[in-house]
Design brief:
Blueprint: H1 17-34, E1 42-47, H2 49-60, E2 65-71, H3 82-96, H4 100-111, H5 118-129, H6 133-144, E3 159-164, E4 181-186, H7 193-196, H8 198-209, E5 216-217
Parallel strand pairs: 1-2, 1-5, 2-3, 3-4
Length: 218
């Protein structure tokens, strides 16, 4: 799933988590309704800001989310925390960027671990370079107001939290203790676990999914 404003997906207006979650919910409902014999709902996997969208979906429509995987994300962005600093740094880069390529080539290496898979770093850089800077600015500003900590007690699906132990943006310490939640910390990994260490990330994901097998969309 390309988040609105990314890839070929048109941005939502206004650009915020309510609209992003509703677009994702529409996709889940559409896929559930079009697949014969497939039960409504899915395992939802989100990375970074996508993890915030996935959390928002799970809280708004819990019956649609059978399992939840949240990678390198946080339940809130608060002044002075890792995500807030990352947003400030990214906004400053946007303001001074000469091109989308130059921005991506600066930002991506700053958030990954020293042993990140080179192909994964190249892919992340390529993908970020495709995002319109005005859309990315709106996404960053939307994250500044994200805070779902008060609703976490309502989070019911089995959940896997994945974090790199070198992630300065969204460390696991940002999360309180949650019921039905498994924590996984990947050594030597930064803010992009699925691209920095895809084999280790996939092994965690497949092990978690083996506990139940609803449809998986991400």
């Amino acid at each position: 799933w390309n988040m609105p404003g990314y890839g070929l997906s048109a941005p939502v207006e206004p650009y915020g988590f309510k609209g992003l979650a509703e677009r994702c919910i529409g996709l889940i409902e559409g896929l559930s309704g079009n697949a014969a014999g497939v039960p409504a709902g899915c395992t939802l996997v989100g990375q970074g800001m996508g993890g915030m969208v996935a959390l928002e979906v799970a809280l708004r429509r819990p019956e649609l989310v059978h399992q939840l995987v949240l990678s390198a994300t946080a339940p809130a962005v608060t002044p002075g925390d890792g995500y807030a600093r990352h947003i400030d740094e990214a906004l400053a880069l946007i303001d001074g960027a000469t091109s989308q390529d130059a921005l991506a080539e600066t930002l991506v290496p700053s958030v990954v671990g020293p042993d990140a898979l080179a192909a994964g770093v190249r892919l992340a850089t390529h993908c970020l370079a495709q995002v319109n800077l005005s859309v990315w600015r709106r996404a960053l500003l939307a994250m500044r107001g994200f805070d779902r900590r008060a609703a976490l007690a309502e989070l019911h699906p089995p959940t896997l939290l994945v974090s790199g132990d070198l992630d300065r943006v969204a460390p696991l310490s940002a999360w309180p203790a949650l019921a039905r939640t498994r924590l996984a910390r990947l050594p030597g990994v930064g803010h992009l676990p699925n691209l920095e260490a895809p084999d280790a990330f996939d092994a965690l994901l497949l092990d978690f999914l083996s506990e139940a097998r609803p449809p998986v969309w991400h």
